[in-house]
User: Fold this.
Amino acid sequence: MTVRLKYACDLDKSVLNNNFDKRGWVPVNTDEDWNFYWATVQTVRTVFSVETGYRLSDDQVINHFPNHYELTRKDLMVKNIKRYRKDLEKEGNPLADKDDLGRYLYLDIIPVTFMLPADYNLFVEEFRKNPSSTWIMKPCGKARGIGIFLINRLSQLKKWSRDSRTNTFTAPSSKDTYVISKYIDNPMLIGGKKFDLRLYVLVTSFRPLKCYLYRPGFARFCTVKYNASVNELDNMFVHLTNVSIQKHGEEYNNIHGGKWSFHNMKVFIEGTRGKDIADKVADEINWLTVHALKATSGVMANDRHCFEVYGFDVIIDDTMKPWLIEVNASPSLTATTSSDRIMKYNLISDTINIVIPPGETPDVRWNKTPAKENYGNYDLLYDEELAQSDILSQDIKGRLGLGLGGSRGMKDRTSKATWK
Assistant:
């Protein structure tokens, strides 16, 4: 029997509307009773606001966590990852071990990054260690490549700053906070072009962490061949993969939209570098995704009415090391090609099936462990609850001297809780 749920939606997107229609759900206004709300981040701020917000009932779910920006604002993501690493270091956790050069062995997942204006002096100190390096400036609160530029001289930064006569950095507007990151100037290239990966990650709970990775992610390519020359620093068609920028390029292809499926990407790496390297890259992407989420889990308002689909942007360098560049709270649901439309429709469909088991009404008292047949194209990335029970069960068996039946037994047991 079909349950006719009531839904509210702030966006007029076919991939959303078609999913709701297919389920026979009933559209209602945002001020009426709804079971499912696909809202903008601005609406969510209002829903959870102390002044204007209201109490959600047990049969209501909404598509953003109240303070998702702890992960999706560029400066806060970096701040939380840095704090996470420091906390692990203080605990003496081996995950925070460093090499002889002071680099994290296991948690070197983001490029060296500073906040401006706050970290200006620290940035200058780092810049002077390697004055020929290129850095990328991004405004913290903007998306789609807006306001981004590259620099390779301190004078460029001072010139851009509102007050270039002093040794301090002042942003053009007092509201503007920027991040400045070491530019990955040795990206892996395909056909001579730079690309990044857009991966969709569904989080249904931060404490305990429950997250899923959507298999049909994709690579986004620049339309112009990569050139690290200083003469090309201003050419965003060479450096920025955002579709919102690339679609204005002369070489943009409307049929494939400059995109390649993540599956094709993996097959390409297998064919050119070998299966072991392809598997290692995929594992390291999963690793950095889980630890970025863990880094924010302690500060996230883990409201049980919430779930969220994040757009993780990752760049692979020419040593086959993946780097987390940023995380988006509202990855675009606009389809640029027919295959894009199908993929995004299925993304929403599979998301709904995990958040609300088919044929049921939302119930936030549920433990949020969906049946595997409802995963669709999602893979369980990490379930902290299951992982902890696995560790406990292994510990008890170890104390009882029962062992784990060899490494194969251990692998089978942990595979329920994590991708490994």
About this structure: The mean pLDDT is 85. The chain is about 35% helix and 20% strand.
